[in-house]
């Protein structure tokens, strides 16, 4: 059996009862295959034997000690066992907080292996964070003198429980595990057989074996992914279609109505998208660009070519606020040209919804803009020709598939204002073509970014007042909606009250966040866009697509709590007009290294592509792309940055498999491909 075919529940492994099964389930581990793909996050090298004399000089030590004596400290529920141990070099104290049962284990004169973190406290060498194992002369240790895996855990699940379950799972599959890599390919590249690779990644006997196992499994993951992308291209190439190309009257009329000309990057991207639309096969393209670079306008201009050919366009946005903004803008631009634009969300109900859906089925609606309601049950298009997805990383693969299924192989255009570094885009979106808009519209000024330490807010407030006095508007952004019992952070609701009553009592303030009813949010944003509100207090709900030309100032409190791309997106809410705009990032005093790196990067650059590279280095590819949330590209081991050389190798071999050497296209690839599709991988 191939690994993905081991679908037996983890409860079939000896030692896993109902309680342990539920704890594994909390980690998303239901089957034996999922358990074996639960890879260690770290390793403890307990092969070397240390001594107590050097214990305080290392992060952790592995020592063989003898129990010298025991005593109890404190009284009542604070009573704590203290065990004095020694070796030939020194003495130390083991403080057994909450582990009183060890009084039955630590008997004077007995020998123990101890793995722990020792520190000198009040001239005494002590450890409270430690693991032990009784020393039996002549017997092999279970957890010492070896490299031990350290796994991601959940509440109630111990490292020892996972290690035991993993060892039994490996034993269960070892003899019947089929190879997913063809023998000629595996031997040519020097990779381990699957069973040895799994053994080596979970219980390595040496660092060399661990590295060889990791490389083998990473390559296999990357190869499978590249094969799936390749099959996706082949599948699209097998679909023949013909779309009649008209004179482009609608597009020309739109461009004539604009008070500006498109940038060179916009024109190039539009040309690339139109080439897809009129090719003989369905196109899939990722359009990425700087915040405020005009991606939406390019998408709408491209949509007109499809509409002119007698087909319909669906435009999907992640929030109702953004979808309504797109709908209003599209209606203002396109309805004077005779294009029928409609809006659909979950809040459109009753007779209005039925009338809209009937018009959609009859082909009377050319462009439908909305939220996830666009692909819900009961929504049918007469002839869906193009699907546009804004802020694509906020949608899972299944959601995009559901919308594509509403048409007969429609074209797909994904858009993102969080630029993805080209190397990562080639890896993650290898079955998509890529277009980039790097230049901003003429006349736009870079946002000037200032950093302010917490405690200096009064100066920031004064600058905001000066901007409002000049006719500008401001955003105040906070990481929380309401006060937290756990986090000591400012929240939007309390700060709205403080700003309104104490700081800016003479100005017009409004509050917006995700819990405010949709109609209320729409009213507030309309008033802010009309200049009837001076200051908008909010959470990161503002991050996506809010476009108000009069906003010239944004204050982001607890800026270190936001990701780098989030900060850049929020900063992009200002500077969308002709006036100079400012961003004030207020940060806490106790910054982490990551927090410092983020603030330096955002301070030093307004270029989203440069910031994306920095964000990728700081967060890693999975978190950067939102993959953990979307279920897309959920690699177990591969790091698309650190394993770039392996990626190139896998891509080369995948191309060979799919084209030059069909003999390598063995049945297990197709079997694996089906399994990955079930798990949500894209085809």
What does the model show?
The protein has 683 residues and is α/β, with parallel strands linked by helices. Among the domains are: 48-145, Nucleic acid-binding proteins (OB fold (Dihydrolipoamide Acetyltransferase, E2P), Beta Barrel), CATH 2.40.50; 249-437, P-loop containing nucleotide triphosphate hydrolases (Rossmann fold), CATH 3.40.50; 448-605, Rossmann fold (3-Layer(aba) Sandwich), CATH 3.40.50.300. The chain has 23 helices and 20 strands. The strands form 4 sheets. The protein has a 7-stranded parallel sheet, with helices on both faces. It is globular.
Number of helical elements? 23
Output the structural class.
alpha/beta
Mean of the pLDDT scores?
Answer: 86
CATH topology of the domain at 249-437: Rossmann fold
Helix content: 25-40%
Number of strands: 20
Q: Runs with pLDDT <50, length 5+?
A: 625-633, 661-668, 672-683
- Biggest sheet, in brief? 7 strands, parallel
Task: Summarize the structure in short.
The protein is an alpha/beta fold and 683 residues long. Among the domains are: 48-145, Beta Barrel (OB fold (Dihydrolipoamide Acetyltransferase, E2P)); 249-437, 3-Layer(aba) Sandwich (Rossmann fold); 448-605, P-loop containing nucleotide triphosphate hydrolases (Rossmann fold, 3-Layer(aba) Sandwich), CATH 3.40.50.300. Strand 19 (551-557), helix 17 (564-571) and strand 20 (582-587) form a beta-alpha-beta unit.
């Amino acid at each position: 059996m191939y690994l993905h075919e081991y679908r037996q529940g983890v409860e079939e492994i000896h030692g896993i009862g109902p309680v342990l099964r539920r704890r594994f389930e909390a980690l998303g581990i239901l089957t034996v295959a999922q358990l074996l793909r639960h890879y260690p996050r770290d390793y403890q090298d307990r092969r070397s034997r240390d001594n107590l004399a050097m214990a305080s000089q290392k992060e952790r030590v592995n020592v063989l000690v003898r129990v010298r004596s025991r005593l109890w400290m404190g009284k009542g529920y604070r009573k704590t066992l203290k065990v004095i141990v020694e070796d030939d070099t020194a003495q130390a104290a083991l403080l057994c907080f909450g582990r009183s049962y060890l009084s039955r284990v630590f008997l004077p004169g007995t020998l123990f292996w101890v793995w722990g973190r020792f520190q000198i406290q009040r001239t005494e060498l002590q450890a409270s964070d430690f693991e032990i194992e009784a020393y039996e002369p002549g017997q092999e240790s279970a957890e010492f003198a070896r490299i031990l895996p350290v796994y991601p855990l959940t509440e109630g699940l111990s490292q020892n429980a996972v290690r035991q379950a993993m060892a039994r799972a490996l034993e269960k599959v070892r003899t019947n595990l089929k190879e997913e890599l063809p023998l000629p390919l595996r031997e040519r590249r020097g990779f381990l057989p699957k069973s040895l690779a799994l053994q080596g990644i979970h219980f390595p006997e040496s660092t060399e074996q661990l590295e060889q196992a990791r490389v083998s499994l990473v390559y296999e993951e990357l190869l499978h992914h590249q094969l799936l992308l390749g099959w996706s291209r082949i599948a699209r190439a097998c679909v023949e279609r013909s779309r009649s190309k008209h004179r482009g009257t609608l597009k020309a009329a739109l461009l004539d109505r604009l008070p500006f000309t498109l940038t060179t990057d916009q024109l190039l991207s539009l040309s690339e998208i139109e080439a897809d639309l009129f090719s003989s096969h369905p196109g899939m393209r990722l359009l990425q660009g700087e915040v405020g670079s005009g991606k939406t306008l390019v998408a709408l201009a491209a949509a007109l070519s499809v509409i002119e050919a007698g087909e319909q366009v669906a435009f999907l946005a992640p929030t109702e606020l953004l979808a309504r903004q797109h709908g209003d803008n599209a209606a203002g631009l396109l309805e004077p040209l005779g294009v029928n634009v409609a809006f659909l969300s979950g809040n459109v109900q009753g007779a209005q919804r039925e009338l809209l859906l009937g018009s959609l089925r009859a082909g009377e609606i050319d462009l439908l803009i909305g939220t996830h309601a666009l692909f819900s049950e009961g929504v049918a298009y007469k002839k869906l020709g193009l699907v546009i997805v804004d802020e694509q990383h906020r949608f899972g693969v299944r959601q995009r598939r559901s919308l594509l299924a509403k048409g007969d192989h429609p074209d797909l255009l994904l858009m993102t204002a969080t630029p993805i570094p080209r190397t990562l885009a080639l890896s993650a979106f290898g079955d998509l073509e890529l277009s980039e808009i790097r230049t901003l519209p003429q006349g736009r000024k870079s946002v000037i970014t200032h950093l302010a330490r917490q405690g200096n807010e009064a100066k920031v407030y004064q600058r905001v007042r000066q901007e409002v006095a000049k006719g500008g508007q401001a955003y105040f952004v906070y990481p929380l909606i309401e006060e937290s019992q756990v986090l000591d952070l400012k929240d939007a609701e309390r700060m709205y009250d403080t700003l309104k009553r104490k700081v800016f009592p003479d100005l017009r303030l409004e509050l917006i966040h995700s819990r405010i009813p949709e109609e209320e949010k729409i009213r507030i944003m309309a008033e802010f866009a009309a200049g009837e509100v001076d200051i908008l207090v909010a959470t990161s709900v503002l991050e996506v697509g809010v476009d108000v030309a009069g906003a010239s100032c944004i204050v982001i409190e607890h800026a270190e709590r936001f990701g780098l791309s989030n900060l850049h997106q929020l900063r992009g809410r200002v500077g969308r007009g002709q006036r100079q705009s400012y961003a004030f990032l207020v940060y806490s005093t106790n910054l982490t290294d990551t927090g410092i790196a983020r603030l330096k990067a955002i301070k030093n650059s307004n270029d989203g592509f440069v910031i994306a590279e920095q964000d990728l280095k700081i967060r890693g590819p999975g978190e950067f792309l939102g993959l953990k949330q979307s279920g897309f590209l959920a690699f177990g081991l591969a790091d698309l940055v650190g394993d770039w050389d392996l990626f190139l190798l896998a891509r080369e071999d995948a191309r060979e498999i799919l084209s030059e050497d069909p003999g390598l296209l063995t049945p297990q690839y197709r079997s694996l491909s089906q399994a990955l599709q079930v798990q949500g991988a894209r085809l």
